Every structure is written in C-alpha cells, then in structure tokens.
Recover the amino acids of this structure.
C-alpha cells in the first residue's frame, strides 16, 4: 500500500480509535471487558431486550436507578445494596420509594457471573442497563465507558445529596455542579423525564394550597392543574401520573414541549424556563424537526454523569451479588 494513502486514511482512523478507546479522565474506558468478558455488553442487552419487551414500563425506573446511584457516593452501585442489621441503606429513603427493577439487575448479574465470574461490576451493569433502557424505548444509544468497581457502603442519610423536586434553579445548578455536571447536563438529563411516571405526592403540593391561600403553583398551566387535580386528590400518595402523558414509554423530545407549555410536573422541570441557557435549550428542542441534537447530547451527558465519583483499579470490589457486599 502506498504510504501516503496509509497516512491519509488510516492514521486519522487509528487516532480516532485510540482516542475513543483510551482511558478518559476518570480511568474508565469503552470496551473495558473486551478481553475479560467479551460478551458482557451483549448479555446485558439481550436480557434488557427481553425485559423491555414484556415490561416496557421498567425502562423509566431503570434509567432513574443510574441517576440515583451516581448522585450518591458516585456510580458505585451503592443504590443496589440492601440494608443490614446495623445499617439502613439508600434504598429505604422515601425519595427512592418507587425505584424498581432491582430484580432485572440481579438476573443480569447472575448471567454475567455464569459467563465470567467475578469480572463485571454491579456499577457497570447499572450504567449499561440505563443505556439499553433508553435505546429500547426508541431513544439514542451511546458508548458507555466501563471499569467501575463496586462500593462497600450505602447510607440512607446520603440520599440528601439527590436534588429534591422542589429545588429552585439555583439549587439545581449547585446540586449538579457538586457532581461536576454543567447547566447543559442539567437541561439535557432532565429530558430523561420523557420516560416514566411520578407518584402524586411529588407534585401535588403544587396543586393544592401552594402558598397557603388554597391556590396552585402559578408557574403551572392552570388548565393542566385542573387535569392533575382530577388525577391526584390531596391525600393520594401512591397513585401515579405519566410525566409525558400518552408517550411515557417512548424516549423523545416531548419533555421539552411539556416544559415549554408549563406542564412539567415538578418545580425543577418548570425551573428550566427561568434561566436563559436552559430556556433556550428547551425552546430549541420544541422547534427542532428531529431529536438529533437532544439524542446526541443525552449520550454525552449520561457519560458525564457516569463519571461521577467512580471507583477504579483496586478500589472497592466486584460484588458477587449486587444487593450485598462480598
Ligand atoms: C434534575 C433533578 C431531578 C429531580 C428533582 C427529579 C425528580 C424526580 C421525581 C420526584 C420523580 C418521581 C419519582 C417517584 O414517583 O417516585 C422522578 C422520576 C423519574 N426521573 Fe427524575 N429527577 C431529576 C433528574 C433526573 C435525571 C438526571 C434522570 C435520568 C437521566 C431522571 C430520570 C427519571 C425517570 C426516568 C423517572 C421515572 C421513573 C419511573 O417511571 O418510575 N431524573 N424524578
Ligand atoms: C435484598 O432485599 C430484597 C428486598 O427485601 C430481597 O428480595 C432480596 O432477596 C435481598 N437480597 C439479598 C441478597 O439479601
Ligand atoms: C392552607 O394552608 C394554610 C397555611 O398553611 C392553612 O392555614 C390552611 O388551613 C390550609 N388550607 C387547606 C384547605 O388545607
Ligand atoms: C425499594 C425500596 O427499598 N424502597 C423503599 C424506599 O423507601 C421507603 C420509605 O422509607 C420504603 O418503605 C421502601 O421499601
């Protein structure tokens, strides 16, 4: 082969491959299990394909699980640990009330332990499952850097690090900044609310007696308030509302349409209209003729979130059972 040709065509490609395959700032890399467990990602995907085809509503909770893992102690699978005699785990926090899908992770882990014992971490499974949940809900896919190790602790008190649905924009921004995430990551990842449901209790304070005068949150569309009040009585706690009504099983840009119509369920959704940067992102997605920008951004921001406080190398352990430390 002509050497000029090699330089012109193969060098740039090999540099690109090197860059995409090389360790990132956090020490994770795409294809970490390529040699040690070559089918790891396929095993995860095949099980997720089966699960989402029979229970599509698990996509939301499985995406949310990764967020709740990463924001508390980093993406170390601390969310998966059960309480013990001497410790109450993150799982028990009221904010985790409707998290589900732990059984899916356990099934996948069992399959991986069979194929390559002691190799694939529960933290990486959680990251891969979140990616596949989005993809299998007609959303984008992206490469997930892996190599995370599992932590040995899970403390209910630390779930305070999760942003509350009543946070103001400033509080949200600070909460994300604490995890090394930008305002752009905030507006992009909030788009995850295109999937899934919420219990009435997380937003009904906005419907009833918001300021103590028997009123609703003025930042909510008043017609939507009537609809939501029909769905959620003040005392309803476990009743569910779809966050993207009519398409809560498909990953799309509808979340931004909802927010722009002042129909975001949480104060934190409405808050994205208060800041110039997040507002313009919301409006751009509403006008966009396709989801290309959002889909690309979502993968980038999920990778960013997935870098939060990870354990690598010899830190932590590879749990045998995701619910208990070894
Ligand atoms: C910006 C701060 C955020 C706040 C305050 C927030 C708050 C909430 C709340 C209160 C619920 C309802 C939970 C329930 O009914 O128990 C929820 C659901 C959900 N959240 Fe978030 N969230 C935020 C960011 C995120 C992020 C970053 C993701 C993932 C990228 C995400 C994904 C989801 C999903 C998929 C659901 C639906 C879960 C289901 O169907 O059970 N959220 N969120
Ligand atoms: C963890 O807790 C769940 C729910 O209580 C239970 O079903 C599961 O068997 C527990 N796992 C282990 C390994 O103890
Ligand atoms: C609304 O809130 C105010 C102030 O907290 C309280 O005095 C009043 O009883 C509440 N009204 C209803 C209908 O709950
Ligand atoms: C899955 C899980 O453990 N959920 C818990 C979340 O927190 C509530 C309230 O403390 C518990 O009752 C749930 O069991």
């Amino acid at each position: 082969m002509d050497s000029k040709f090699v330089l012109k065509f193969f060098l740039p490609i090999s540099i690109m491959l090197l860059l995409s395959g090389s360790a990132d700032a956090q020490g994770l890399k795409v294809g970490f299990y390529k040699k040690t467990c070559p089918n790891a990602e396929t095993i995860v995907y095949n099980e997720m394909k089966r699960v989402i085809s029979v229970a599509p509503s698990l996509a939301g909770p499985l995406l949310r699980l990764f967020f709740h893992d990463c924001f508390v102690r980093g993406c170390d699978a601390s969310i998966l640990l059960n309480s013990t005699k001497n410790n109450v785990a993150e799982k028990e926090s009221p904010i985790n009330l409707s998290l589900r899908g732990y059984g899916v992770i356990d099934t996948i882990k069992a399959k991986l332990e069979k194929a390559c014992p002691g190799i694939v971490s529960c933290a990486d499974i959680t990251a891969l499952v979140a990616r596949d949940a989005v993809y299998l809900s007609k959303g984008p896919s992206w490469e997930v850097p892996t190599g995370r190790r599992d932590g040995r602790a899970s403390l209910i008190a630390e779930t305070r690090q999760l942003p509350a649905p009543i946070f103001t924009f400033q509080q949200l921004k600070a909460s994300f900044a604490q995890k090394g995430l930008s305002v752009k990551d905030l507006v992009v990842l909030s788009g995850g609310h295109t999937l899934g449901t919420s219990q009435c209790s997380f937003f009904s304070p906005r419907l009833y007696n918001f300021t103590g005068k028997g009123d609703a949150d003025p930042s909510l569309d008043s017609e939507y308030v009537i609809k939501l009040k029909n769905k959620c009585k003040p005392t309803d706690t476990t009743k569910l509302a779809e966050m993207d009504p009519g398409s809560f099983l498909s990953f799309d840009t509808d979340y931004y349409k909802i927010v722009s119509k002042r129909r975001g369920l949480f104060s934190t959704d409405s808050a994205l209209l208060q800041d110039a940067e997040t507002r313009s992102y919301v409006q751009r997605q509403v006008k966009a003729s396709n989801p290309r920008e959002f889909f690309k951004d979502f993968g980038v921001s999920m990778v960013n979130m997935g870098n939060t406080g990870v354990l690598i190398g010899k830190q932590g352990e590879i749990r045998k059972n995701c619910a208990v430390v070894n």
Residues 3-21 form the longest helix (19 residues). The chain has two domains: 3-162, 169-300.
